Each structure stands twice: as structure tokens, then as C-alpha cells.
Amino acid sequence: xxxxxxxxxxxxxxxxxxxxxxxxxxxxxxxxxxxxxxxxxxxxxxxxxxxxxxxxxxxxxxxxxxxxxxxxxxxxxxxxxxxxxxxxxxxxxxxxxxxxxxxxxxxxxxxxxxxxxxxxxxxxxxxxxxxxxxxxxxxxxxxxxxxxxxxxxxxxxxxxxxxxxxxxxxxxxxxxxxxxxxxxxxxxxxxxxxxxxxxxxxxxxxxxxxxxxxxxxxxxxxxxxxxxxxxxxxxxxxxxxxxxxxxxxxxxxxxxxxxxxxxxxxxxxxxxxxxxxxxxxxxxxxxxxxxxxxxxxxxxxxxxxxxxxxxxxxxxxxxxxxxxxxxxxxxxxxxxxxxxxxxxxxxxxxxxxxxxxxxxxxxxxxxxxxxxxxxxxxxxxxxxxxxxxxxxxxxxxxxxxxxxxxxxxxxxxxxxxxxxxxxxxxxxxxxxxxxxxxxxxxxxxxxxxxxxxxxxxxxxxxxxxxxxxxxxxxxxxxxxxxxxxxxxxxxxxxxxxxxxxxxxxxxxxxxxxxxxxxxxxxxxxxxxxxxxxxxxxxxxxxxxxxxxxxxxxxxxxxxxxxxxxxxxxxxxxxxxxxxxxxxxxxxxxxxxxxxxxxxxxxxxxxxxxxxxxxxxxxxxxxxxxxxxxxxxxxxxxxxxxxxxxxxxxxxxxxxxxxxxxxxxxxxxxxxxxxxxxxxxxxxxxxxxxxxxxxxxxxxxxxxxxxxxxxxxxxxxxxxxxxxxxxxxxxxxxxxxxxxxxxxxxxxxxxxxxxxxxxxxxxxxxxxxxxxxxxxx
Length: 776
Prior knowledge:
The chain has 776 residues and is an alpha/beta fold. It is globular and about 95 Å long. Residues 1-22, 360-369, 412-421 and 761-776 have low confidence and may be disordered.
């Protein structure tokens, strides 16, 4: 009888038998051996109809390998009378029959029973089982909850084996959702826990490390680690008790590594080995998917397409459905069927967008656009190469709507310490954040034609990386033009050189001059003096466009600039309700933690300019943000990013992105006089604290791309308000940056400031600014 079965029998004895201290039930519970127990408990149940007798018979039958008989006994015990541990047995038996829905229900029934009985080891097992089922269905949020609860229960039970299981489960979830750093830290904890002679777990950890290395694009190292896993399993032999699923995963990951290394013969060998680990009647999707990849790599593209199309006739989990559609698009395009490829990429995008619509059901299912971006990029390229700029804009905007959500999730992965605690905090934060993000107007992309109509005569330069190339969609004067800028890798190298030295010369042949020539050619720009919005992508988010040279002048001397995460963000801002007059309700918060004396001085100076009283130190509290309707918010405080995403530190705690989005009405203008509040972890502008305020409804947000010295920051803030920043933030920023450039102040001292949004007169065309007057 199993360990858990013996525990259940002991528990039944400990609970007592009422008036049944002797007789059939007592004989049942004291019987020695599974056959004897089964016979005695069968007799006891016939005589007494006792649920405890039926439960004991079920455990005995399971111990004898008679699973159907065990289930029959369990089903004779009323649900409300099942003792702790019995539903977990039922779950394992349902799983053996392939009935995952019944198994999930059984685990959920057992968890409160086990908790009430004080069986922490049983709780850990049940949480692991339920978490594993959720992981297998890609319901990663549910899986994370159960593995973390199981870890706590296993720790209370002081059971090292169960602790290891939960850690491995957590590592699998973090890896699946793209948190590779968290997964790596978790795997290190698992390795520290392993016993040297535990061959099965050693091989399992090697398999997981190989998978992580593949995700990190390190196929050579991955192949070495996975080969060690395969060799160790073979040396241990069948008696070690390896799960076929584990062995199959090792060989399929070796297929993946071989394909990445361009070795189809090795991929074919490992695919054949994976096929041997398939039970009769079982056919995992992964086998046919990798078989299609191997066929394509071997030159048989038609066989690859047939396999992929056959898979798509099945009911697939979303994570597989989009991946197979994307691969089908690749194969059709490689075979010259661009129309078929375009349709496959569209279907892949449709699946990904449906996953986003289901965020509330599974908060972590579709983390990280980076691993799911290809169909967007491929479809954009096809539309661009076909000369369809409107269709290309539509694809770019759909991609940016997805990355809006992903960026905030990614920013919640930056916590380096306490990976388990940060995972729990992150999950709770995302549970509230993601539904609000999904409902934000900026993440509801409009059709491209509707976007053009909403923007009217305003000018937007929207950049989009599609595979190897960077493209520019220029919306100027109501017209849309599409330009291929060139290879993205070369541009990223130039950007890295320029950003490393913002004050470098901008003469012919310099990195700055080359970037200006490529990114903002005069032929695509609106007339001088017209405002210009920039939608950056990839490495461009780190580039201060204001300091780009255009011929003999800087871009900011030609146009007032504002940054956008997407074209749709501008349309959403234009459609937002008009905020109150800026002079009516300004709020200035400074030095909430009383360790930033320069921030307190800055807050006093700004408040004096605005004619209000600043809230300093302990007065700068979270409740002040939500109190009343604010036209202007100025904050001089600590900011950062952690397990809960980007945050703003006030006297009584952090204000997270979720709380910013939940504000009843975001300030018309938000000024974040903090360190790098314009910078986030995303390939576009989303994911930063500045973007959270923009998404929450602020029409303009002033923030910085990098940290500034206190004295320089105070100077810029004063100049911003003196130039009219409270009423015309984008124009005021342009004025101060032009003035700084005119007197040859180094760009590193002023170019980092950016305006998000920059919509100053909703519902009306933008007005031009006179360069001559400003520069005289």
C-alpha cells in the first residue's frame, strides 16, 4: 500500500469508529496486506455501508494495481463524506484514464479536506498535481498559485522530496512564461536540493537546463547538456523509472538544437528516439510539429505543410495553435505561396489576440511578445513589400497593442532578489493590472483608415522592425508613406555608439549624422515649425530624437516633438475628455521619503511657480493622488521597477502601474522629475512609469530617458515651467531644448527629457510654432 494510503488508514483509526470499535469495520481497518484489506473492507461495507470501509477498500485495490476497482469503490463514497486524501487518489486514477477535468475537480475537493486534517504533505502533493495539470494546459497563473502553495505546505511538512517537486514546477512555469532569469534561479535551488544518487531528478534538471539554454538562443551549450541527460538516462536503464514524457522531451529538445545548428540528420535521429517514447494511442502535438520541421529542414517542404495542416484540423491549445500557424506561414512563404503565408500569419495573430482577450481567465498565459512577435513581423513585411502601407500600419498597430500589455508584464520581471516572493507579488499585481491594461483605450487598435481620419493633418513618424529590417511609416499631411530604412542590426550599432556619447560631434560621417540621415530624412518631414510625433521601436526607444541632426540643424529646432508608444495612443488621447484648466488644480509632491533634499527644494520652487502649496515628506501620501480631479501633477521622488512593475514611492508606500491606471481621472499633465521614468524594458515606450500615466489618461507626461544630476534636473524643470510647460508642455520642452542647443549646452544635459503624448488642444489641428521668434 502506498505511503499516503497507509496514512489514510491510520487517520481513519485515529478518528475513531463511533460504536464500531469491533466488528467488520475494525477488522477492515486492522487487516494486514492489500488483499486481506480489500476483502475485509468489502465485507465491512456490505455490513455497515461505512464510507471509511469503502475508502480503505479503494486504497487496497489501488495498491493491487486494480485502478478501475479502486475508482468504483471511491464512487460509492458520497462526496460530502470522503476523508482527506481519498479525492487525491481519485485524481491520480482519473489521470490514468485521461480524464483531466475529473482529476482537477478531485484535487480541488481534496485541498480543503487535507488542510482541515493538518496533512501538509498531502496538501503539497495535491497542489503539485493541480499545478501540473494547469501547467500542461498552459494555464500558467493557476499553476504558479498551486506550486507556490505546495512549496509552503512541503516546507511545513519538512519533506525534501516534495519541496523539490514544487521547485521544479515553479521553474517550469517561469520558463514557460518567459521569465528565464527567474527560471534559472529556481533551477539553481533545485540543483542545490538534489541528492547525488537521485538519477531521475538529476536527468530532469539537465533536461530543464538544456531547455533554458535553447530559450536563451545557445543551441551548442544546450545540445551538450541535453546529450548528458540522454546518456545518463540510457546508462541508468529502464529500471530507474524514467517517465516517457521526460525522455521524449529530451529528444525533442535535441531535435530543436540540431535544427538551430543546421544538422537535419541529427534532428531526424532524435525525432526517431522521441517516437519510441510514445505510448499506444498517444500522439503528442509536439511530435508532429517537430516532424514537420525536420521534413522542411531535409528539403521536403510539401510533407512539412501536410503535417502542419493536419495538426490544424485538431483542437489545439492556443500556445500550439499560433505556433503551428506561424510555421505554416513560413513554409508556404518559402515555397512561393505568399497569399497562403499571409493568411496563415493572420490566423496566428488572431490566436494571439484571442489569448489577450482571455487575460482575466489566465493572467499569465501569453507573456512576452518577443517570443511571439514573428507572425506580426512577417505579415508586416509581406504587406510592405506588396506596397500596401495601410495594411502594414494595421499590422504594426496590432503588434504594438500586444507589446503594450507585455511591456508592463516584463517590467514586473526585473526583481533580482527573492524569486519566489517576487513571483507571488508579481502574480498578485498582474491579477489587478492586466484587466485594466486590456481595457485601456490605447490598447484597442483601430482600423488603419480610421486612425488616419482620427489623426487628421498631424504628423507622425512610426518605426517598426520587421525581421531584419527597420521600416518607417510616415503619416504627414493626411497621407501615409512607407519607407524601408535598412538593416536593423547596423542601425542598432549606430544607436549604441550615439547613445554612449550624447555630446559627440554631429559632423558628416558621425554616428549622429548617419542616424539623422537614415531616420529623419527631410523628404518625409512636415514643413518646419509643425509638431511631430515619434513612435519608436526596438533600440530607437533609447535615442533622444531631439538631438538628431537634420542637415545643419537639430530636429528639435525644426519641430516640437512628442513620443508615442503607438499611433493609436495619439488617436486615443485626441478622443479623451478635456481636463480642467491647468491653473485650477495642480498637485506638487516632493521628497516623500525625506532622503532627497534636492527634490524638496525643486518641489518648493515648482509650487511657487504654480501658485500652490507643495506636499513634502509625510504629506506626500498615496491618497493625495486620487483625491479630486487634478490638472497637473508634479512628482519629485524615488521611482523604480520591481516585482509589481514600475512604481512611484510616496511617504506611505509605492504607487504601482495598476494603481495609476485605476485613478478616477489621470492628471492632464504629469511631470515625473525622477530617474529614467521614460525608460522601460520594452522594445517600444510601454512598460515605464511615464507610459502608465499616459495609458491612465494623462494627455502629456514629461519624463527622462536617463538620470540627471540634481542641479541639472532642477534647472531643466524650472526652464520647462518658465517656457509655459503647465499649459503647453510639448511646446515648452521644445523651447527650452532649442534655447539650450542655441547656447551650445551639451545634449547630455537636456536631450534626455521627452514628452509622452503631447496632445495640447484636443479636437483641433495643431498650431505651428514660430522658429524665428523662439530662436532670436
